[in-house]
Design brief:
- A 6-stranded parallel β-sheet has the order 2-4-5-6-7-8, with helices on one face. A two-stranded parallel ribbon has the order 1-3.
- Helix content is 38%, strand content 15%.
- With 227 residues, the protein is of the alpha/beta class.
- The protein has one domain: Alpha-Beta Barrel (TIM Barrel).
């Protein structure tokens, strides 16, 4: 439910062939269905509904694409441009139902992000925050994550964080989020083969595996919407 397989529109797959190769690698890991979530980031990845659907159509033309793309959404950077999109008449791209995937900068949280989440929900959407464990500025006060959940924001963990791929801080925060049962989704965030290879090689201990099993994950609920 979080990857960058759509070709040629962000820092993920460069072209259809690369996308197909990534999908084959994910299929080998057991993935069967996916929701593609390219970046929408002002000044860097100026995507919109049209560019995203056009990229999806390129994959639709591939015979026997390895995994089923059940939906195309976006990973929205919470910046000024996002606030303008939120106020526009065109609906945002949702993962399923009213859920939208959003992200923070890795440098600092958006100013007054609590108000932004409130505005998102006033518009009828529910925010899903991508890879919250990678926002190291929250490491000194982990109660921020309980606050996010309390204000109606769901959290989506990157699977690779559990193996230390993004560093020890992200790994520790990821384990904390699992321990507190704060995780609603776990995604690959696949951009390139290095991510799939890291998933193939990743080892997690039994305690982390047990924590994953105890999470109130919503993947099956989400998939059921498309079946």
């Amino acid at each position: 439910m979080h990857n960058h397989l759509l070709p040629g529109i962000d820092d993920g797959a460069e072209n259809v062939a690369t996308s197909q190769s990534l999908a084959q690698s994910l299929q080998a890991l057991g993935y069967t269905h996916t929701i593609c979530t390219p970046h929408i980031m002002s000044g860097m990845y100026n995507n919109n509904r049209t560019t995203i659907l056009e990229a999806k159509q390129q994959l639709d033309s591939v015979e026997n694409y390895p995994i089923t793309i059940v939906n195309t959404a976006a990973e929205y950077m919470l910046d000024e441009a996002f606030l303008q999109q939120l106020e526009a008449s065109d609906p945002l791209l949702t993962l399923y139902q009213n859920n939208i995937l959003v992200e923070f900068s890795y440098v600092a949280a958006p100013i007054m992000y609590q108000d932004v989440f409130f505005q998102i929900q006033l518009k009828g959407y529910r925010p899903v925050l991508a890879h919250p464990e990678r926002y190291s500025y929250f490491a000194s006060n982990l109660q921020n994550y309980e606050g996010l959940k309390a204000m109606g924001c769901m959290l989506q963990l990157n699977a690779l964080s559990l193996g230390g791929y993004y560093g020890k801080t992200a790994q520790n925060i990821a384990i904390h989020l699992l321990s507190e049962r704060l995780v609603s989704y776990i995604g690959t965030d696949t951009h390139a083969q290095r991510h799939v290879q890291a998933l193939q090689q990743m080892k997690i201990d039994s305690k982390i595996f047990e924590l994953i099993q105890q999470q109130p994950l919503l993947h099956q609920q989400m998939l059921a919407v498309f079946q």
